[in-house]
Design a protein that fits this description.
The complex is a heterodimer of chains A (about 190) and B (about 550). Chain A has about 190 residues and is of the alpha/beta class. Chain A contains eight helices and six strands. The relative contact order of chain B is 0.09. Classes of the chains: A alpha/beta (about 190), B alpha/beta (about 550). The complex binds thiamine diphosphate (TPP) and iron/sulfur cluster.
Chain lengths: ~190, ~550
């Protein structure tokens, strides 16, 4: 039986809930025992959001050092979640920053990404980094970043789920007029990793 | 039709715990439901609100506060209908007055009271453990561990409630309400026709004057004894595995315990008592369980609710089982648990060797900026704060002013650069505390309250302020919705969700004037100069005044229509 703990992190408004819905529905349709824990409420207003997704485990929550896969929709959030990882955790992350309001107001600084991401590659065995927002924009809308990242997770081959299975639930859950752009975004993510 | 209603028996759905509760309530024949929103319970009300339009046999309302909602559900149950109310943990404080005596008079139709607790205060002002309300009120309580169990328990809760003629508390936590998992489905009853109940008069039951209340308290104690027998034999309470070492656990922690045992290779070798029917405590079951083991770790979040019950049982029956938990420092009384924390506690209690996984060196990670939640770009609340701030600065009063605040999106005015939130207790406290500050200090007082919060708990303190001649300025942030919890309706709104177009509108300015507030003005905060001129006399005066700042929440404006 597949046993996997996937931690997905990002910023409120990036569509992490849809990311996990599509992933979850795909697992359901393919008969994988899936459970997850979502963040609803205040944090969705531009705060840090995460979804814990577990396959084959009962606890819908991932502790320090327990993530098998870390999926980041935003690079600083990926860095923030590293204590939940081990050396062999697979890291899949977009590198396009979302600068917090507090930084825009001059009350905090956003770190320099280049050196941090270089260190990230050095520290972990399998790291996949890509400009998710740029890829989404090329696919038709920067709002489809979540599907780029989902495509990348699908392309990693970590889950026993076919690309078609993901696309089927994507088509079911995304509003009809956005399906095309979202599919393209998914493809872009899939190809960036495969 | 919503998929949750459409799903036929046997279909599997991927549902949030809160959505599973709604499905379970429908399967259990729910007829009347009422709620006031609050995270982590909000999706229950939101979903009932959505599906009610498609189901003639279901009534749902957003009431103005939790006490009203509980009274609506109680009267429906007294009329023989199955009813439900749901709220966040602190909502039960508001409804507690009703709860405590409702336990005396009881119900006829099944009634379920859902309280969604929030260990770690993910979106709350405290992390109170509402299981203590079950002990306090004497009511039976069920605690699910997963979304599917939440569904089945909700349906069962109606039966239990009717058997005992008492409301039943269903207690979840954030990690159950906001877990999403595979859920089964059962048959739904026919919802195609409206169903009415009938209230049978019986003053010696329904009117708890002292003579009646004294009798009903006795009835309640008898029912608690009856419920204890049911809890002892309940299939929600079950024993897994065998051994000298035992674990008693409930709620989401059950999952953490079972995963930890699997990871430690101890599945089946430790005796686990999983409790789902937790109040009245299944004392017979607890006694038998404790008798068979040497040591027992109690794994529950927040208060030592089951732990104390176990100790009491051990003391009463002269059992020498070594009980470990919060009192022994194995587990904290603070915050929600994590699987890792529970595993660590188990390792220590069992005296096992801890195997630390190799952690990579992360000392290179740079300092990361925090990401506090913020007001949306273009939010009207920000404009309102700026109008008031600039006028107070012009008056030279900005520093001398206390800003009592309230709960809603606008509480984010706490953060820089606005920083106009100085004091907060609970919903409605902006008004009551302003009364107190106005007699206790010589400082200027400008307080902020949202429209939904004003109807929830602001009306009666404002009447008190008028009558007692307190001096402060109250700013009502009329964004036409209950924004923070998902844009639920408010009685004063002009913008409406589809289906609510025919509701009457309560005019805020008229209400405030009718209460006798001497100065009232309504502003549009986006028209800054006009607004500043309009509020200046009120902010400069030493009398009570109300500023209604009216501009819709921009997210809500995009979704609703006029
Ligand atoms: C007793 C209680 N019930 C519910 C809540 C959850 N809650 C917090 S703020 C709020 C209402 C917010 O609406 P409003 O006052 O209109 O402010 P807005 O978010 O629209 O700015 C609710 C329901 C709570 N904190 N306490
Ligand atoms: S949801 Fe509405 S009220 Fe809340 S911050 Fe956003 S715009 Fe403002």
């Amino acid at each position: 039986m597949t046993k996997l703990r996937i931690l997905a992190v990002g910023v409120g408004g990036q569509g992490i809930l849809l990311f996990s819905r599509v992933l979850g529905e795909t697992c359901l349709n393919e008969g994988l025992p899936v459970a997850m824990s979502e963040v609803h409420g205040m944090a969705q207003r531009g705060g840090v959001v995460e979804t814990n997704i577990v396959l084959g485990w009962k606890s819908p929550l991932i502790s320090e050092g327990e993530a098998d896969v870390l999926v980041g929709l935003e690079p600083v959030e990926t860095l923030r979640a590293l204590p939940r990882c081990r050396r062999d955790t697979v890291i899949i992350s977009s590198t396009d920053p979302v600068v917090p309001q507090i930084v825009k107001d001059g009350l905090a600084t956003y770190p320099e990404l280049e050196p941090a991401l270089a260190k990230l590659r050095e520290t972990f065995d399998r790291v996949y980094l890509f400009p998710g927002e740029k890829l989404a924009k090329e696919a038709g809308t920067s709002r489809a970043l979540n599907m780029v990242v989902l495509g990348a997770l699908a392309g990693s081959g970590l889950l026993p789920l076919s690309k078609e299975a993901f696309l089927n639930s994507l088509r079911k859950l995304v509003k009809p007029k956005y399906i095309e752009a979202n599919e393209k975004a998914f493809e872009a993510g899939f190809n960036v990793i495969k | 039709m919503h998929p949750i209603v459409e799903a036929a028996k046997g279909e599997k759905l991927l549902l949030l715990g809160n959505e599973a509760i709604v499905r379970g309530a429908l399967e259990g024949g729910l007829r009347v439901a009422a709620a006031y929103p609050g995270t982590p319970s909000s999706e229950i009300g939101n979903l009932l609100f959505q599906i009610e339009r498609d189901l003639p046999g279901l009534y749902f309302e957003f009431s103005t506060n939790e006490k009203v909602a509980m009274e609506v559900a109680a009267a429906a149950a007294a009329s023989g209908l199955r009813s439900l109310t749901c709220m966040k943990h602190v909502g039960l404080n508001v409804a507690a007055d009703a709860l405590m005596t409702l336990a005396y008079i009881g119900v006829r139709g099944g009634m379920v009271i859902i309280t969604a607790d929030d260990p770690s205060c993910h979106s709350s002002q405290n992390e109170q453990d509402n299981r203590l309300y079950a002990r306090f009120s004497g009511l039976p309580m069920l605690e699910p561990t997963t979304p599917d169990e939440a569904r089945r328990m909700t349906a069962y809760a109606f039966e239990l409630s009717e058997k005992l003629e008492l409301p039943v508390i269903l207690r979840t936590t954030t990690r159950v309400s906001h877990a999403r998992a595979v859920v089964d489905t059962d048959e739904l009853p026919d919802y195609s026709q409206p169903v009415k109940g009938r209230f049978e008069k019986d003053p010696r039951r329904w009117v708890p004057v002292p003579a009646v209340a004294r009798v009903r308290h006795q009835v309640l104690l008898e029912k608690i004894r009856e419920a204890t027998v049911l809890a002892d034999g309940s299939s929600w309470n079950r024993i897994l595995g065998e051994g000298d070492f035992g674990i008693i656990t409930s709620g989401v922690a059950v999952n953490y315990v079972l995963d930890a045992l699997e990871e430690l290779g101890l599945e089946g070798k430790v005796k686990v008592l999983v409790l789902g029917f937790t109040h009245p405590h299944p004392t017979g079951l607890l006694a038998n369980f404790l008798k068979g083991i040497e040591t027992c770790l109690v794994v529950e979040e927040l208060e030592p609710f089951l732990e104390e019950a176990a100790r009491l049982v051990a003391q009463e029956r002269g059992l020498s089982t070594n009980i470990l938990g919060k009192a022994t420092g194995h587990l904290p009384r603070l915050y929600e648990f994590t699987p890792g924390l529970v595993k660590g506690a188990l390792i220590r209690a069992l005296g096992l060797e801890e195997q630390k996984p190799e952690r990579p060196d992360l000392s290179w990670v740079p300092e990361l900026p925090p990401r506090p939640p913020t007001l949306c770009p273009g939010c009207p609340h920000r404009e309102t704060y700026l109008v008031v701030k600039e006028v107070l600065e012009e008056l030279g009063e900005a520093e001398n002013t206390i800003y009592p605040t309230d709960i809603g999106c606008y509480t984010l005015g706490l953060l820089p650069p606005i920083q106009m939130a100085d004091y907060l207790i609970c919903m409605g406290s902006s008004v009551g505390s302003s009364c107190g500050f106005s007699v206790a200090t010589d400082q200027r007082i400008v307080s902020f309250i949202g429209d939904s919060t004003f109807f929830h708990a602001g009306l009666s303190p404002l009447a008190s302020a008028v009558y007692n001649k307190h001096r402060f300025t109250l700013v009502i942030m009329d964004n036409e919705t209950t924004a923070m919890t998902g844009h639920q309706p408010v009685p004063s709104q002009e913008l409406r969700w589809p289906g609510l177009e025919d509701r009457p509108r309560i005019d805020l300015e008229a209400v405030v004037k009718a209460l006798g507030v001497p100065q009232v003005v309504t502003i549009n905060p986006y028209r800054k100069e006009e607004a500043k001129a309009a509020v200046k006399p009120i902010l400069a005066s030493n009398e009570l005044g109300v500023i209604i700042s009216k501009a819709p929440c921009i997210l809500f404006r995009g979704r609703a229509k006029k």
